[in-house]
Amino acid sequence: MSIQILLEFDLMVVATKNGIYAPSSPRENMCLKLNMILTQYVDTLSQRMKYHIGYPTNMHYEHHAILAPLLQFSLNNCGYPFTQSPVDFHSKDFEVAVLDWFAQLWEIDKDEYWGYITSGELHSSGILYASKDSHYSIFKAARLYRMELETINTLVNGEIDYEDLRSKLLVNKNKPAIININIGTTFKGAIDDRDFVIQTLENCGYSNNRYYIHCDAALFGLILPFIRHAKKITLKKPIGSISISGHKFLGCPMPCGIQITRKSYVSSLSKIEYINSTDATISGSRNGLTPIFLWYCLSTEGHARLQQDSKICIENARYLKDRLLEAGISAMLNEFSITVVFERPCDHKFIRRWNLCYLRGMAHVVVMPGITRETIDSFFKDLMQERNKWYQDAKALPPCLADDFGTQNCMCSDNKMHN
Amino acid sequence: MSIQILLEFDLMVVATKNGIYAPSSPRENMCLKLNMILTQYVDTLSQRMKYHIGYPTNMHYEHHAILAPLLQFSLNNCGYPFTQSPVDFHSKDFEVAVLDWFAQLWEIDKDEYWGYITSGELHSSGILYASKDSHYSIFKAARLYRMELETINTLVNGEIDYEDLRSKLLVNKNKPAIININIGTTFKGAIDDRDFVIQTLENCGYSNNRYYIHCDAALFGLILPFIRHAKKITLKKPIGSISISGHKFLGCPMPCGIQITRKSYVSSLSKIEYINSTDATISGSRNGLTPIFLWYCLSTEGHARLQQDSKICIENARYLKDRLLEAGISAMLNEFSITVVFERPCDHKFIRRWNLCYLRGMAHVVVMPGITRETIDSFFKDLMQERNKWYQDAKALPPCLADDFGTQNCMCSDNKMHN
């Protein structure tokens, strides 16, 4: 595919590089060729859909045909979502509708929140505390914005190590604390305990105006609110901001994020000296299509679909984890999580076929909406078949994953004896 | 429009806020309503197209229907464009094809450049020198990344004031200089002289490894290379990077930018101590649709269309400027520019109708592809009619714009006498 795209394209460039349009074939021919490339690309992607189980992107939405006419326009939501735009080609009304939806979900009044739809970033001064299992963009942001950073250890399941957080908070008591809380870590799908973090801050003597909590709820932010018994994500607690991804659990053809914070932080910057967000939005120009996709998705399906998807995904994730453990394959699944972590497959072709994401001795499947039991079974069957080959001669043994999964979830020969 | 969107949406939220899906109308009804809103929105935008003359967005492309099927997928070009992606749902082959095109345009070898397609930012340490007419995102970036900033004055036409630059460079000789050069300023469409800036740096004693030049060619980067007698934008000169916007002159339904720099800056960071771009891309996730839109646009039309569009736009801009001056309205147009700056209309309704962008006593029209003589004439006619009302009783007089446009372009009563 890659070679073909470049070739076709180079032909065209060669034909026109003297600034004179002298195509080797008529324009229609060129268009036909390009359309062929595109059709082939779309076909390949369509076929690969059912192998897309390693990354959290929901592509089982159906609004693309209805929303396609919007591609005629270049919609740019420049600046604040709430101020009237001086131009026509924006979708701020849709953006505000989506933000209102999330404000309601996260229990903050319409006139008390501020937010926007973007690719989502964090910017503050003070010391940033983030667990080592946080998304890499947190560490990148810290570097880019030249923030002081304290990396906190994690527990076996991927949650922040509250004891390590406590001791580092105590050492740095002279400076305000900005805490990144993960609501679903990238790799293990672990959920940090908001209440416990808040209590730790208070026990360490941080008053309310000396700390700021950001919740990175990229994937799980649209799962937890719809699960009975799961702890709410709510701005009634002393949380400064919440961000989620739009292209993950909800589904959107372009990467995007929703960011909600308290209006008081934005309008009266001087009051909170450690929120250095002097500018409201980080990128000036913002994609105007994404709010409409999100709006349409939430409007047509909303709570009902999210509730159903969350339930099914969690059930399917448990199903996969159980099958793996029963087959003697080390695996782990956090409570309320859809990310099944398991022993990393030996064969790179297998990893590539199933779009698996891996880290050290682990790999994971994110059981997203649209990943059916059939897909899971087909993956499981493929894994079992291949795995028999990897370990058939006992030349190699499956790795011990007790440190990463806990002994109860490690099925290596040493641990099996004890279990 | 805005109220209706919110209303429809709120109805749905109310119906489902208890987490139980209890719609007041069946699902099909809801979809019909949403589609009505969308149709109305698309209609409004379509009607407003011919009034979109104040901002540089080209919406006269025709690839939207062909590329619409891509909306089925969530394409994410995460990380480097040049490394193979571990997943299927990306468009890096298209991205690299587009980058290659620009590398060729800006005269840098395939294996010597590095770049990516994104919303585009700048990140460095050292002192940043930018003229006060630079795009606001430059100043925002400087604040976000906590860079030292020297703002340089501009000449009457919007070009950087080389004398002011020289004196500020001399004061700060102990620190490396990062210079933002505008190839088309946002408001006046002024083009800084690259050679003169480079010469100034050398005259001030800055050696090649003590300065870094970034060219912000957002709009004009796809005009100048296609105009005979215009100075080339070329990386054969000691320029560090060039960025342009994809949604402006070329046209793309989403805001995007192309950024090209020298590979040596990215691969051997330690050598150039003032390029602190420790991470390759600034945002991790990048929209995978935009490269395909750009690729399609360049492939089907490429040099030929850009050459034709540039020529027509510059001619049409001159036509508008001449009509304004002949009618006694202060106006200015830089050489090779498509941005006609003129006396700011008094009536806000008029400004809003024509999507005009204004600053102090000035407004501008950006004569983009698709803005025809008919549109220009219709705008001019409307302006003349309205303007007669604004100044009919001689209660108010048109403002003097000699400071902003130069006396030869100012048509206020004082200057008229001298001209």
TrEMBL record, chains A, B:
The keyword Lyase applies. Coiled coil: none annotated. GO terms for biological process: carboxylic acid metabolic process. The modification N6-(pyridoxal phosphate)lysine is found at residue 248. The keyword Translocase does not apply. InterPro entries: Group_II_Decarboxylase (IPR051151), PyrdxlP-dep_de-COase (IPR002129), PyrdxlP-dep_Trfase (IPR015424), PyrdxlP-dep_Trfase_major (IPR015421), PyrdxlP-dep_Trfase_small (IPR015422), Pyridoxal-P_BS (IPR021115). Keywords: Decarboxylase, Lyase, Pyridoxal phosphate. Its cofactor is pyridoxal 5'-phosphate. GO terms for molecular function: carboxy-lyase activity; pyridoxal phosphate binding. Belongs to the group II decarboxylase family. This is Histidine decarboxylase. It comes from Solanum pinnatisectum (tansyleaf nightshade). The lineage of its organism: Eukaryota, Viridiplantae, Streptophyta, Embryophyta, Tracheophyta.
